[in-house]
Amino acid sequence: MTQPSDFASGPLTGVRVLDLSRVIAGPYLGRLLADLGADVIKVEPPEGDLSRLIAPKHDRGMSALYTFANVGKRCVGIDLRKPGATELVLDLVGISDAVIENFRPGVLDSLGLDWKTIREANPRTTLVSLNGFGTVSSWRDRRAYAPIVHAVTGILADQGAYADQPVTQINAAHADTITSLHGAIALLSALRVAEATGRGQQIEVPMFDAVLTSYSEVGSALLDPPNDLVMNPIYDAGPNGVIATAGPAQHLWRLLTEADPELADPAPRGAPLAEKARLRHRAIAQWMAAQPGPEALLDLLAAAGVACAPVVSLPEALSGPLARERDLLHQVDDRRGGSRAVVRPAARFSDAENRVRGPAPQLGEHNDEVLGDLLGYDPARIEALSAAGVLSRREVGKP
């Protein structure tokens, strides 16, 4: 039994999670739980998680993407297609509070790991199924990666229209990570129910649903007529950089002209709204460029009540003063003889640790440890599973 004092090391101390998922959405959900102190056991196929290879050639094997989603876990290499693999996984289910999977609907069933079988192996466990479009869907069997979900949810078109630019893809796995967050909330809720009732349950979180329930512009898209406010303008301030602001352009104009009466309205009386907005935008950009320096400009904007920030690159944000103040980066063993940085978890507890627990695992690194210590398998049984191809192990740089 976990004692109250144990939670200082992590709010999920004593919780064990079996992670059958791959690439990003499921693995990142598992990483969030590992940061919180859960013992997350990743089951990985002999060929390795695809995220190990989604990388520049020099980074493959223990890629930045794989590390991002898998730090702090233990890994058992299991070929789910081999005879005996299902029984091994069910033994692991029997000692786990939760199971994460992100196969397409029906794939887990075909492996003999359907919800009925999982529940029989452990009535207390909760199964979290992340997929693209839901079991009850004409798209249930389609491959779902973040770029596909970004397209079909409408957010690419919406962002293109907002920026008045051609549609382009988002350079981030937004659909995956937002689904991971919804999955984490749902799983933590189900664990509370299981603790009270002794019964787990199955949870499905489709990426399509998760993106749209989290997209803040859904309400505006459903308006009739649609919202035509010019929101959150960005200004090229010349030598003072590029400045992002928050709020309607009209509100920003009012704040700045009240703060500096010399900022004259360049729009002629009776000008069409679009022309007035364009001329005022240009006037504000010129006013910003004329200020004596970037810091002076930001101070003037703040004094006027404008929410603003300089537009910086991602590397600048990660290594800049704000990141250093927040102690944002945590170094982990890169498993190649060096180290690499990962961003620490965002939530900070007053009386418990939420932190990166260790490096991302090599494939099958913890076969003996997990099967021997947790399941009580003797060395001969583990060796037999390895000889049969059920278990696999591989280190980066080695065949």
Compact summary:
This protein has 399 residues and is of the alpha/beta class. It has two domains: 277 residues, Rossmann fold, CATH 3.40.50.10540; 69 residues, no CATH class. The chain has 17 helices and twelve strands.
From the N-terminal CA to the C-terminal CA, the straight-line distance is: 42 Å
Ranges where pLDDT stays below 50 over 5 or more residues in a row are none
Q: What proportion of the residues form beta strands (DSSP E)?
A: 5-15%
Largest sheet: 7 strands, mixed
Indicate the radius of gyration in whole angstroms.
26 Å
Counting H and I runs of at least 4 residues, what is the number of helices?
A: 17
How many discrete structural domains?
2
- H-E string: EHEHEHEHHEHHHEHHEEHHHEHHEEHHE
What does this structure look like?
The radius of gyration is 26 Å and the shape is elongated. The chain folds into 2 domains: 4-216 and 329-392, Crotonobetainyl-coa:carnitine coa-transferase, domain 1 (Rossmann fold, 3-Layer(aba) Sandwich); 242-310, no CATH class. It has helices at residues 25-35, 64-70, 85-93, 107-110, 115-121, 146-152, 155-163, 174-197, 207-214, 218-221, 249-259, 273-289, 294-303, 314-319, 321-325, 367-374, 379-387, and strands spanning 16-19, 39-44, 74-78, 98-101, 126-131, 202-206, 234-236, 242-245, 308-310, 329-333, 339-343, 391-392. It has 399 residues and is α/β, with parallel strands linked by helices. The chain is 39% helix and 13% strand. Strand 10 (329-333) and strand 11 (339-343) form a beta hairpin. The strands form 3 sheets. A 7-stranded mixed beta sheet has the order 6-5-4-1-2-3-12, with helices on both faces. A 3-stranded antiparallel beta sheet has the order 7-8-9, covered by helices on one side. It has a two-stranded antiparallel sheet with strand order 10-11.
